[in-house]
Amino acid sequence: MSRPQLIVDGHCHLASSRCIPREFFVGVARNIARKKSARDRPGEAENLARLMELQYQDHDADRLVRKMDEAGIARTVLLAPDFTYVFKSEYSLEDMAAQHAAVRARHPGRFHVFFGVDPRWGRMGHDLFERSVEAHGFEGLKVYPPCGFSPSDERMFALYEICAARGMPVLLHTGPTTPTLDFRFADPYLIDAAAKQFPGVNFILAHGGVNFVEQAKLMCNYRPNVYLDISGFPAFMTATTWQQHLADLFAQGINHKIIFGTDWPVFSMKDDLSAMVIKLLEENGPMHGLPEEVVADIMAGTLEKLLPFPLNTTGSVGSTSAFELEGESA
Question: What is the residue range of the signal peptide feature (predicted)?
Fold first, then answer.
């Protein structure tokens, strides 16, 4: 299979402990420790949490850009979920917005940013989101329902109205995450009311190609403004099943709704970015037999159509318009 001319990673995060509260790592570590042993081993979860935090020290994205270059990834969407309402953090949402803006300035033309605000912050959160879009040129909204709310909660609607007015997409987490959060709100069906209420807003189901797949496929088939990404594909499934799983997904007639994503740095100790791209595009890989134009759309084209404006060479808005050892993701 020939490599597409353009690859854009539609689902990535800064590997920065400033963006992910420690409680997130602790929950994941406890889950991993429990999976390893029927009995808790004293100190094991704490050691795992510290190890994870050490992997999240790429605060300016220099390492990420090197990995992107090795993988042939031209641009990446950085997702900045808001955990500050449910977890204590010494870094505020304003700090996180400034950090992502600084990363864009440091690496011109390489990053789009989807910024998150918990709807329970109310008007203060709405204003912060709008200011961040205006000041920094952020291009989308990141929603993290397992923090304790439905993506169709009416308190989200003011944020969706901002996205509708500016032509910005919304990416929402679906599926498992750290066990310190609430899985009840991770079902793709929960976006249905909002997708119906806001037909002009495009909603992307994060991990929809690997979690709650039947629900995600149905939403993509029957809601014109709902899409899914395949982020986390190398690690949610075993080495012997993930390729066939994706091949089956690509045979469902919704390839125009599928977006490539890696979920870096989650699973970065299992697979490098270049390895993920190679496995996906190799001759006998899950994309084997797909028309080149379909592959090009999955790897970049569909996402490009959803973004409200391009990047210019300074990394600002164009003038034309964990590491984790196993399954929990951001």
Answer: none
